Amino acid sequence: MEIIVVDDYNKMSKRAANIIASQVVLKQNSVLGFATGDTPLGTYKELINIYNKDDVDFSNIKTFNLDEYYNLPKDNDQSYNYYMSENLFKHINVKRENINIPNGMCENIEEECRNYENTIKESGGIDLQLLGIGRNGHIGFNEPDLKFEATTHLVHLDEDTIKANSRFFDSIEEVPTKAISMGIKTIMQAKKIVLLASGAGKAEAIYNTVKGPITPKVPASVLQLHPDVIIIIDKEAASKL
Ligand SMILES: O=P(O)(O)OC[C@H]1O[C@](O)(CO)[C@@H](O)[C@@H]1O
């Protein structure tokens, strides 16, 4: 694992955006894996700035998002479809048909998960996967568990995650309790992984990810086994290392 400690959130975001932009410059038809949450918002802003300066062309990329809430319509302003559109996709020249996000409104979950995995494979696999991390060490929506869930699957969200995500909803009752998420194997098959974390609230998760035992109780700890991971964190998130 390469660990890059930067001063603050803005520097973390710039560093991550530069890595993603370089990936696309070097391989125009890159397959990019994107994440949601607060952490990558600055990275997406920086990527839009880079795009507006004409420094990178996204017209040949394909994208796959890590996860989507189950049973939340795409046009709900808390869906990850909506988030990605508002915070990145509508500002750059990615082709709509090249955007993939699990369909949380699907009728057949198993079929949706299978199709999502197949579409990733048919695209040649993910070249670069961006990740945030939950305070409990989750990546995507792979919550702490007794085993690593391999492929795209339906997840029952932890109480902690539901509480953390309630800040985006009017009340905790409105927070979806399930989601469709790439599995650990899906994430681990990405050729390159960039994990971001900012703030003291993530310090313990980062410590456990980098220095702790590899265990499904800290899903991100499996990244110790990946050959090409860059962890970009600010000083506060690095404070327990
Ligand atoms: O970046 P945030 O908002 O701290 O979220 C961390 C993690 O939690 C999630 O938002 C889901 O709970 C993930 O998508 C993200 O990686």
From TrEMBL:
Query: What would be one Gene Ontology cellular-component term for the protein?
Result: cytoplasm
- Cross-referenced Pfam families: Glucosamine_iso
The UniProt entry, under SUPFAM superfamilies, shows: NagB/RpiA/CoA transferase-like
Spell out the catalytic residues: D67 (proton acceptor), N136 (for ring-opening step), H138 (proton acceptor), E143 (for ring-opening step)
> What superkingdom heads the lineage?
Bacteria
Catalytic reaction(s) noted: alpha-D-glucosamine 6-phosphate + H2O = beta-D-fructose 6-phosphate + NH4(+)
Purpose of the protein: Catalyzes the reversible isomerization-deamination of glucosamine 6-phosphate (GlcN6P) to form fructose 6-phosphate (Fru6P) and ammonium ion.
The protein's name = Glucosamine-6-phosphate deaminase
What is the protein's species of origin?
Maledivibacter halophilus
Q: What phylogenetic lineage does the species belong to?
A: Bacteria, Bacillati, Bacillota, Clostridia, Peptostreptococcales
